[in-house]
Amino acid sequence: MLPFIGFWGHAAVAFAYAALAIWLLHKYGTRNRQQVMLIAAMALTALWGIISTVAGPLSLAALCAESARNLAWLCFMFFLLRSGEGREQPRTINMIYGVLLVVLLFQPVNDTAVAIFGNASNGADLATQSAMTMRMIYAVGALVVVHNLYTVSAPEARWGISLPMAALAAMWTYDLNLYTISYLTSAPSDELVQTRGFATAVLAPVFVMAAKRNSNWGIRLSRSVAFQSVSLVAIGVYMLGMVVLATALELVGGTYVRLAQISLIFGMSLAALLILPSGRFKSWLRVVIAKNFFQHRYDYRSEWMRFADTIGFPSKEAAPFYERVVKSLADIFDSPGGLLLVPDDEGRLTLQARWNWATADVPANCVTSQTMPFFESTGHIVSMDEVRAGTDERCDPRAVPQWLYDEPHAWAVVPLVHFGKLAGLVILARPRLPRALDWEDLDMLRVVGRQLASYLAEAASQQALAESQQFEQFNRRFAFVAHDIKNLVSQLSILARNAERHADKPEFRADMIDTLRSSVDKMNELLARLSQHNKSRHSLPVVIDIGEAVMKAVHDKRLIYPIDAQLKPGLFATADPARVETIIGHLVQNAIEATLDGSPVRINCRKQGNDVAVNITDTGVGMTEAFISNHLFKPFESTKEGGFGIGAYEARALAVSMGGQLRVESRVGKGTTFTLLLPIADEKDNQISMEEAA
């Protein structure tokens, strides 16, 4: 039964793939290499089916045809990788496919050795095991290549290559199982050998659907996948070499063969553990891949994304900004450390940050008088190796300080120029794998340097803005303080005039002492408000008796100016007593200064809807509607000579901060009424406050 299945299964392969080759030849012709190799792979697969049908699937001719079939499919994948979008990306991928090519070339040799030494049991066993091993290695490598080919393809092209890649993966997975079982049992599995033809024939319709879906496949090679692929191949070759050497020792024989094998495996494993994780080996491998697999040294997309993540999206554990500037540049060139020099307030370059370079001896005066002019005018990137050797004709030796000549690890000096101004200077340490700067390095340094210069310029602008905001905050505080001092001066001036007439009265002297003491306390408070440590935080609003708060606010002013306060008891509002006192103080002082004939200022309190209203009324000069609308509540706007225009502005701001309002009604020559509205307290809060007062 099995020979019958094997015969018709391989015959189906011959018929199906021959028909596919003829159909693809009429469909595609010979327009490009990957289509030609696809047709050739179909034809050789059909040839393998024919030979397996006629001579048997395990004959020497069938095994050689199988190697030819695999070689054709390998070439198809190679040309597919080189086609479309990938044509401009990779230079060559011979290193990845080279191992598989060598394996395929050795397979006919092994198969011939099996046929030759078929009568010698020892030779036959060795050749058979070697042949099975080579086919297992190829199957594993082919599956890795299929996976990588799909992974690195352009996203829009994966839809077109998914079916052929799945068919090839299925074919080589079957081969891997066949040869693994044969190797372990030291004999080919008849069931798997005979049913292999039907398993391969079933994949033919998949290739038909793939050809109808898309005739052109574009591939873009990913650097990270290339690095992983080369690493995987290198590890596989290393392990294969270790197995071959161990087998050779066993063939040589001897008393201490087991000890020699153990020592060999242990030594090579230890060497791999020491070499593979090292940064120098990884750097060397990346350089080799970049030189042999790609037209360009850098994967600009991934480098730019890493640069943006480093400099623009710092985490909580990230280094400070200036260290990230150095790191973002050093990471691109695999530099282990760097320094950043930036201009100080006097315009001289000073050391601002170190990144992984604690041993660099940077003097306080770290540049010469020619450093900034040279780099600003030229933007020249200096290779310290060329400067030391005297081969850099563009560099002015006077622009490079002596300590850089003496520092053996200094590799490159990169100016960060922003609109003709030097924003900084980065000194990169020598990479783990020493190399000279080429044109692509210089282009990358210029582009990244310009971007970093803009970041440094933005940081300098933000720092200047922060300092300006600090001065603005101080000026704002000073303006409020100056206004309050003016009010105190006016109050003390009136007190001094009244002292000439009433100094002999004990009551006046007592009130004068209270007023002076209160004025001193307010002046000390004003000075404290100017301090940078003063946060100027207000207390939270509480339930207060508005009448008591108003009387406390005008207590000192009633000693020097007539104030008629008609306050209704039992009115409670939710407010901050200190802020209420400040508001009333500003408004009463404005009313006093606006009343030229000495008429009293009237204050009354009442309930108005859901608010408590405090009215401050004077019979002074009044204000126009235009002034009220456009200037009254703006800082530094005042109708009074020598006025600061701060009182009304601060009063309204404080009222709003407590959830209240400040309204005004005024007529020129008739007077002005300011109305302070504060939220009325709830009945429960009123009852609690009255009980606490009792």
TrEMBL record:
GO molecular function annotations of the record: phosphorelay sensor kinase activity
Transmembrane segments annotated in the record for this chain: 6-24, 36-54, 60-81, 93-110, 130-150, 157-174, 224-249, 255-276
Keyword flag Transferase: yes
Keywords: Kinase, Membrane, Phosphoprotein, Transferase, Transmembrane, Transmembrane helix
Catalytic activity: ATP + protein L-histidine = ADP + protein N-phospho-L-histidine
EC code: 2.7.13.3
One Pfam entry name: GAF
Domain Histidine kinase: from-to ranges: 480-682
Class of this enzyme: transferase
SMART domains in the record: HATPase_c (SM00387)
Protein name in the entry: histidine kinase
Organism this protein belongs to: Sphingorhabdus contaminans
Lineage of the species this protein comes from: Bacteria, Pseudomonadati, Pseudomonadota, Alphaproteobacteria, Sphingomonadales
The encoding gene: prsK
